[in-house]
Amino acid sequence: MLAEDRSRSAYIDESYYWIETCASTTLAFARSAHIVPMFFREREGVNKMNNPRFLLVLGLFLMLLGIILPFMMVIHVIKSTFFINFFAYGCSVTGLVLGTIGFAQLRRTR
C-alpha cells in the first residue's frame, strides 16, 4: 500500500509541476508582449469589472483554462476528478458569460 501511495503522490506532484509550468510560461509571454500592463493597470477610482477589456481578457483566460484542463485529463497529464471536471466546466461557462458581457460593454462604449 505504501508503494501505491508514493506513486499517487509522485503523480500529483508531476501534475502540479505541469500546471505551474504552463501558468508561468503564459504569464511570462503576457509580460513580454506587454499585455499585462495594458489590461491590468491599476488606476485610481476605476473598477476593473467595468472595464470591457479586462472582462474580455478574463473571459478568454477562463475559456482557455476550460479547454486546456480537459485536454490535459485526456492525455493523462493530470488525473480526472469530479472537482477538476466541474471546475473546467465552470471556467468555460464563466468565461463565455464574461466575454459576452465584455463585448456588450465594448460595443456600448463605442
Which residues sit in consecutive blocks of at least 5 with pLDDT less than 50?
Answer: none
Q: How many DSSP H or I helices? A: 4
Rg computed from alpha carbons, rounded to a whole number of angstroms: 18 Å
Structure class: mainly alpha
Can you characterise this structure?
- The protein is mainly α.
- It is 79% helix and 0% strand.
What labels would you give this structure?
elongated, mainly alpha
Helices and strands in order:
Layout: H1 2-32, H2 35-39, H3 52-74, H4 82-109
Helix pairs in contact: 3-4
Question: What would you say about this model in short?
Answer:
The protein is mainly alpha-helical and 110 residues long. The chain has helices at 2-32, 35-39, 52-74, 82-109.
